[in-house]
Amino acid sequence: MIIIGHPWIKSSRFCKVFSIDDIKKSNADEIVLLEPLVDSHTYAAYCQENNITFAVVSNTLDDALFANALGAKYIICEEDDALMIQPIAQEYLFDARLLVLIHSEKEISKIARGGVDGVIFAEAIC
User: Which of 34, 58, 62, 102 sits CB 3.0–4.6 Å from 107 for a disulfide?
Assistant: First the structure.
């Protein structure tokens, strides 16, 4: 299971961006965070063309399918959405990893039992 943002585990920061300029200004060790895909698909294509690691916030299966096709490394969603998307991601062998946004360490085992790829603590997002 992937655990991002826990103080015991070194991980990259995810930084929200709202323009191509923001993407260009991001640090190499940060993961660009796009949301929602309907408004940021051109940024996703830019990241893909320029080999920039990015994540997408997704609230629907369609968004997750498109995010994976556009080359997202991570797809971040709420638990209920993740539980619905994860079996499909496994069936189609997504390259992207599904993460559930969490606020407490207590949520990790619950997400793990659901078979989701991983979790991201809210503190890992700037």
Answer: 102
